[in-house]
Specification:
By secondary structure, the chain is an alpha+beta fold. The chain is built from six helices and four strands; from the N terminus they run ααααβαββαβ. It has a four-stranded antiparallel beta sheet, covered by helices on one side. A hairpin with a 6-residue loop joins strand 2 and strand 3.
Length: about 160
């Protein structure tokens, strides 16, 4: 979180609002206020404060990969030849800009990066490999794991207990 979020005190109302938004970000301000037991003006002010502090990064819709034909998920480990700051940053920027890359993590120890990618099928994955890895002279090793069954997908995070003032 940003410095302003670090100093931000979250009370029970803030946490209730965050939990409600994590479950359904499409709620109107009126519905959110009713469910959080606050006035619409209070709700709007608190949500704006949480967004300004960086606690709420953005609101999104979760789409069905199966119904949209993007049913192949791969977890990909990448090891680079040179791990200097410039090489790491260049690789990270390039893969993060690719629409098929849903998540990108620098990790240690082990590989340099772990990616979660979503493509339509194996030809789509092959195209991604050509686009991101094959033509990069700094990529030493690529190891992919393909999902055969998604048992759970939930982007929500566990929220802390309310702060005591």
């Amino acid at each position: 979180m940003s410095d302003s979020a670090d100093a931000l005190t979250l009370d029970a109302t803030d946490l209730r609002l965050l939990e409600l938004l994590q479950n359904d970000a499409s709620l109107t301000n009126q519905a959110l206020a009713e469910r959080a037991h606050v006035s619409p003006a209070t709700c709007l002010r608190r949500i704006a404060r949480l967004a300004a502090a960086g606690v709420i990064e953005r609101r999104v819709a979760l789409l069905s990969v199966e119904r949209l034909g993007a049913g192949l998920t791969a977890i990909v480990e990448i090891t680079l030849d040179r791990q200097g700051a410039e090489g790491l940053s260049a690789f990270e920027s390039r893969v993060a800009a690719d629409a098929a890359v849903q998540q990108c993590y620098r990790v240690s120890p082990g590989p340099d990066f772990v990616l979660v990618v979503q493509v339509a099928d194996m030809p789509g994955y092959h195209a991604l490999v050509q686009r991101l890895f094959t033509h990069d002279a700094n990529v030493r090793n690529v190891k992919a794991y393909f999902s055969v069954h998604r048992a759970k997908f939930d982007p929500r995070i566990a929220l802390p207990a309310p702060s005591r003032a």
